Amino acid sequence: MNHEELWQAALGEIELNLSRANFITWFRNTGIIDKKEGLAVIGVPNGFSKEWLANKYYKLVLKALRNISPEIKEVNFTISSVLSKTGEVAKKPRKEKSIILPEEQAGFDELEANKETNLNPRYAFDSFIVGSFNELAHAAAQGVSQSLGTLYNPLFIYGGVGLGKTHLLQAIGNAAYNKSKEKVKYISSEKFATELINALKNGQIEKFKDDYRKIDVLIIDDVQFLTGKEKTQEEFFHIFNSLYQKNKQIIISSDRPPKAIATLEERLRSRFEGGMIADISYPEYETRLVILKSKLESKNTPLPNEILEYIAANIKKNIRELEGALNRVLAFSQLNNTVPTVSQTSKILSTIISSPKKLINYKNIIKAVSDFYDLAADDLITKCRKREIVWPRQIVMYLMREELKISYPFIGEKLGGRDHTTVMYACEKLNKEMETNETLQQEICLIKERIYG
Ligand code: ADP
Ligand code: MG
Predict the structure, then answer these.
(1) Which of 1, 117, 246, 374 is the one with CA 20 to 30 A from 185?
(2) Which of 20, 156, 167 to mutate to test the pocket of ligand 1 (most atoms within 8 A of CB)?
(3) What does the H/E/C string look like for the chain?
């Protein structure tokens, strides 16, 4: 296997773990430029990517490479102009290369944010469109921003990728900051964990905690990533309590409700559940159209309604993608100095819209389920009867059956040599539950998002 093939194989795995936007942003134009004595050297296009990859994706990259080539023990990132054919990325038409398409950027632009608060003024209540899908979360957010610390504490907002959680959290922060110069801090749970670990390393933990205890409004984004890191959870718990007791406002987001975050410590879970929990679901067609129109207003380039309608009808589950599609069409229109027709629009957006369901196999399902529940994949495929494994394993059985139509005996064989009747029983049970159990429906939906990326 040469470097190129190895990297392609690793990218295949890395891609399963990231949103498409993040994958494209960080792994475009990367490649293996050297491999010797257990060290793989990855070429990246610039210093920013280098830092980001090293800090955020080191483990993921190492794991993906080691799965294919176990002798690799270490990874190094270096700036280089190697161009790699990163699957979809390389297949994009050349013309688009010079334009940075917004859906290909990371979700939250830290570079534009205030260094102290991490707030980006772009995310305001004014620019946030409300529909029935997000009305509860929006109302709770507004309520909280007007009665900090007293109305709902904590406020916990959850929902899928690109549906406005960060926007809403930031809007609360901006409102609080602008109105009364409250001491606001927005931070992702990953960054919180990193800073905490650094503080521990450098003997600065007391200062770290003191700083947090001075905050009036603490906003923790994507708290699902806080899972599993015990020390982090413990310190966070103490900071949480200290702020809570002083009636300081705490706002949290996650991709799922607290009870579905498998490795969240019980005491944190019960704290999160002690305030207000609001979800964001998917916007309906009319709202998608309104969102597109409002985004278009700030762009100084008109587009006919039928184009907006086409986009709204075809992109349903992610507002970031909706915006990305609009920007793509606008870029086309500006570059070619024409207004695109619907059929041109459909071509421009073909990579976003008509991507057929990704081809997957049962291993993708096992991986997605084990990641979701933070378990080792091996536990799912062996005889292990630990109680916490039973449920995720049944989910795997159900998904293998539903998504791939695999036979019961084959599923049983792949999951620790179980009898086909066991599999049948699990699938029937889950099928029934899916009809009424909303939590399960959401979980399955999130897992499928992971499977199909
Ligand atoms: P999440 O944090 O849930 O992944 P974001 O808050 O980052 O999603 O939203 C993705 C993009 O969609 C952002 O550019 C955001 O401004 C925009 N967006 C999300 N919800 C709305 C909304 N209700 N009205 C207007 N723009 C929205
Ligand atoms: Mg977000």
Answers:
(1) 374
(2) 167
(3) CCHHHHHHHHHHHHHHCCCHHHHHHHHCCCEEEEEECCEEEEEECCHHHHHHHHHHCHHHHHHHHHHHCCCCCEEEEEECCCCCCCCHHHHCCHHHHHCCCHHHCCCCCHHHCCCCCCCCCCCCCCCCCCCCCCHHHHHHHHHHHHCCCCCCCCEEEEECCCCCHHHHHHHHHHHHHHHHCCCEEEEEHHHHHHHHHHHHHCCCHHHHHHHHHCCCEEEEECHHHHCCCHHHHHHHHHHHHHHHHCCCEEEEEECCCHHHCCCCCHHHHHHHHCCEEEEECCCCHHHHHHHHHHHHHCCCCCCCHHHHHHHHHHCCCCHHHHHHHHHHHHHHHHHHCCCCCHHHHHHHCHHHHCCCCCCCCHHHHHHHHHHHCCCCHHHHHCCCCCHHHHHHHHHHHHHHHHHHCCCHHHHHHHCCCCCHHHHHHHHHHHHHHHHHCHHHHHHHHHHHHHHHC
